[in-house]
Design goal:
Blueprint (H helix, E strand, L loop, with lengths): L3 E2 L2 E2 L7 H28 L6 H25 L8
Antiparallel strand pairs: 1-2
Helix pairs in contact: 1-2
């Protein structure tokens, strides 16, 4: 049994691995951007930013980088550190 990362089976032989990792990365990017938008909105309103939003930004950034590391290791793609 192969290891999994957020439901994606990490098997080099899986023909859908690249597509699944790209979809996972896109999902984490959407969550990251949504949290950044919430942070900007709260600041515009002069309100403090919720700790859960800050944590979400941090966690999703880590997840995006982890997916990119997996793509580099499993698919031999270049590693991109830009979020």
């Amino acid at each position: 049994m192969n290891p999994r990362f957020y439901g994606v089976e990490l098997d080099k032989e899986n023909p859908f691995l690249k597509r699944n990792l790209e979809r996972l990365e896109k999902r984490f990017q959407q969550r990251f951007l949504a949290s950044v938008e919430k942070k900007v909105e709260r600041k515009k309103e002069g309100k403090p930013v919720h700790q859960t939003v800050l944590k979400s930004i941090e966690e999703n950034e880590k997840r995006i980088l982890m997916v990119r590391l997996l793509k580099t290791a499993l698919l031999e793609e270049a590693f991109n550190t830009e979020i």
